[in-house]
Amino acid sequence: MYDVLIVGCGITGAATAFMLSKFQLKVGILERENDVSEGATKANSAILHAGYDPKPGTLMAKLSVRGVELARELCRQLDVPYRQCGSMVLAFSEGEKRTLQELLRRGEANGVQNLKILSGEAAGKLEPAISREVTAALFAPTAAVCSPWELCLALAETAVQNGTELHLETEVQGICRKAEGYAVQTNRGILETRFVVNAAGVFAEQVHNMVSAPTFSMKPSRGEYYLLDKCEGAKVDHVLFQCPNKNGKGVLVAPTVHGNLIVGPSAEPVNGNDTANTAEGLAFVRAKAEKSVPYVDYRQSIRNFSGVRARTDHPDFIIGFPDDAPGFLDLAGICSPGLSAAPAVGEYAVKLLEEAGLSLIPKENFFCTRRKIRFKALSDTEKRDLIAKEPSYGRVICRCETVTEGEILACFRTPIPPRSLDGVKRRVNTGMGRCQGGFCGPRIVELLANCLGVQPGEILQDRAGSRVLLEKTKGGAADV
Length: 480
Fold this sequence. Notes:
Elements: E1 2-7, H1 11-20, E2 27-30, E3 47-48, H2 59-77, E4 82-83, E5 87-91, H3 94-110, E6 116-119, H4 120-126, E7 136-140, E8 144-146, H5 148-161, E9 165-167, E10 172-178, E11 181-186, E12 189-198, H6 204-209, E13 221-228, E14 239-242, E15 252-255, E16 261-264, E17 268-269, H7 279-292, E18 301-309, E19 318-320, E20 328-332, H8 338-355, H9 380-389, E21 396-398, E22 403-404, H10 405-411, H11 421-428, H12 441-452, E23 471-472, E24 478-479
Parallel strand pairs: 1-2, 1-12, 2-9, 5-14, 12-20
Antiparallel strand pairs: 3-8, 4-8, 5-7, 6-7, 10-11, 11-12, 13-16, 13-17, 13-18, 15-16, 19-20, 21-22, 23-24
């Protein structure tokens, strides 16, 4: 029997597993996809928000400020790309100036450090590309950007190294209450556990309703984005927001940790996990963003994508045990600032589980370090020495991002090796450049097939069913 089973391995589930792995517990994670971070974690703005937006006293407020502090240290310990670039909320009218004052008040109440309101002129000196129509800006130097899927992967890998069992392609189909805990029915059999943590993202309502009377409803919201090439990456130095509204924090323009420029998102209600891009949604994003930064060259867009936020009909995070399901902990509605809050959500979940009777005995040998070789970041001397030791690092596979065969082979030896082209991409950044995998894709298919011991025709782009190549059947017809 497990002590804790976590349903879902996005950033919230991974952070919770990481925090639990510090203790002498039997912990498992159930993830329906073939990799971690397959939901909103891989498709968001990648912002670690300073914490001025949530209303004081809410879980969002408490956990986002604490989460950003934890994320900074975790990115350092686990070698996750991180950049504390700061953010600005731009005002274009007297009414929006008053909104900045309210955000300043909230931020100070939430404990955000060094917030200040700049004049339009001062904001323009910090960010010359912004519109001359900007009349003021709220400056938050503690805001940062990171690689969200790499942070999720790092947390999950560390949890696995510390004894957590990760069950990929394992979908929860039912949960039954037992005398001591729960029996969780999956497509791979039944697992018993004392506690269940519901970190299922947009599917959190379905998982909750398996054991408890309905108490919340999911209201998923799709956000569409532009990702622009590195030639536009230096357009701005800070995360630039417009004043928030009822649909969220609005359309932003921001640098990424990999040197690109990201623009978005929209906010459109959708059914389920619909991540399609639309002409209407992208046109909306572009029109809104041009108000902040008028001269972005959208001809340099290398990819459009969208993510679905796990919003609910509650205005705050939903974290707690339902009255009719003791031992079942909901971590639901963890939408923006969910990435920022995730480490603190995991920390808080452990506290609640302890209060509910989970015995926490710290491990004496908890392992919390991680180092990756990023070839293009090495000095010339380091590159020569590495190639002399391991020649595979001398073969560049992804030209756009200068990723070597050695880095790809190394990711196959990690605690959670990739099972798809996009799985490799999330680990070593292949296919993230201008050609979007057009050059390196075939070679990575070959390396992945060799690693997995399968035919190239079985290699997936990402999720189950997304096979990259066509094969001929005996009758001569193309079969996907």
